[in-house]
Write a structure and sequence with these properties.
By secondary structure, this protein is an alpha+beta fold. The chain has a single domain, classed as Transferase(Phosphotransferase), domain 1 (Orthogonal Bundle). Helix content is 29%, strand content 20%. The chain contains seven helices and 14 strands. Helix 3 crosses helix 7.
Amino acid sequence: MTAWQPFYKIRNGIYSTTNMLYTPLINPEGNVMCMDWSLDNPYHGNAVGRTTELIDFFFEREVKYINIFKDYPWAPMILDIDVDNKKIFIEWNKETLNTLLFVHNVTVDSICSDWKDQQYNILKDIRDAGYYKMALYPHCFFLDKNNKLKTFDFYGCVEIDNPYIEYSKIEGIIGVDSGNRFNSATTDGVIDFSVFFKNTLLTHLVNIWPDNPFPEIYRKLYEIL
């Protein structure tokens, strides 16, 4: 895999890592992503808070939820899961919506006119299956060769009936800029991700998506008129 290249997101002209957990590596053909969950990969530099326990916790969640959703049309095809080496290989299509929006400077509408409907259907399917999905940034979506929207990064999914995770378990990935988001959903050291999910859709993504569909999606999902 020496020719595989790390994938970065861009925002305000600055390239940065897409997450604090795994290294996204893209093959030379641009059609496979490897999620490499190695602790010592240089992609993350000397990020404070990354520990073996933290990586293992989220790797296990990624494997769990990517298998739960693998048969949905919006889930990328799983090519291989190497549990021993903590690597997950999925289908890819060269770039994410982040690249289209902030590198190519095009609107998603100009490429895929029904993308908002597709996003609604993705979150509806996840809700109907009994889960929330927290990772909803532009770099968490790509269009496949048939112009169908696919999403990945399932490690942040939680059960609707049990949306609680101890703050201390995931503190290592909570950055300074995102601390308030987690604190506002935390009571007695436990994060309520039903609150976190609501805040994400209604307020957090407003300044991240140029044509943000998520407040309306939230209202449709929960019949708020």
